[in-house]
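Re: the request from the purification team.
They wanted to know what the chain is likely to look like in 3D before they choose a buffer screen. I agreed to run a prediction and write the result into the notebook, where they can find it.
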Amino acid sequence: MKKKKTTHTICFANNKGGSGKSTTCANLGSALAAMGRKVLLVDGDMQLNLSLSFLDEEEVLALAAGGKNLYTAVTQEKELSEFIVPGVQKNIDLIPSSTLMSQIEMDLFPKWQREFILSKLISGIKESGVYDYILIDAPPTLGGWVMNILIASDYVIVPVEATPWGLFGLANMFEFIGKIRQMAPGLSILGVLITKVDERKNYYHQTAQTLRELDDIRVFDNVIHVDSAIEWAQDASSTVVVYKRSARSAKEYLNLAKEVDQLCQ
């Protein structure tokens, strides 16, 4: 009998906006897919940026307004496989988000064992072994919904932008993850990813040094530089890995995918 795949579930979380969570989730997913890995992307953010990285705005808004999105699945507590949009890129399927995710905290509040709802709804997909990776984009908060996402995950990647404010609030993020691990002891920090790097500026080197001095926190060997090709790809509802594979950032995401894949084996 053929052995089922081990499905690794990774979420991308940082309570500071603008850290590159959605961009990292989309492009790492795209890079893993280019390596032949089967990937499911789950858009957990009301801003819809992960969905917009693969589908045009009209289609994303139609899915957000309709029933085939994560908000409907979670609020109606339905198994997530019903809400998959297949083949948004070769080897990539997507569960899109909805602008109604802005009220998910209120919707979750009265539910029984509300912190474990996403974990329960995604368990069937994980156990099926269809995917090598499930990547979940989390919103920039530390509330009950992000708690759900973390509990449903095996690993968390924390993108940190190499700017003067990039480290702001990071201690709170790590403290929050530590509390979640009391409920989900299998969760671990896969690593911190430094994004929006400009090596001409001193604060990049300061950020990198500060992060690498943290105890028991891995900082990925690969970093992501500032690259206008990323924005052009986003404007084309694509990832830079597909839009311009020769771009510096595309090569960096492909190298990051190899690093992540090796760490998860």
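For the purification team: The chain has twelve helices and seven strands.
Please add any questions underneath this entry.
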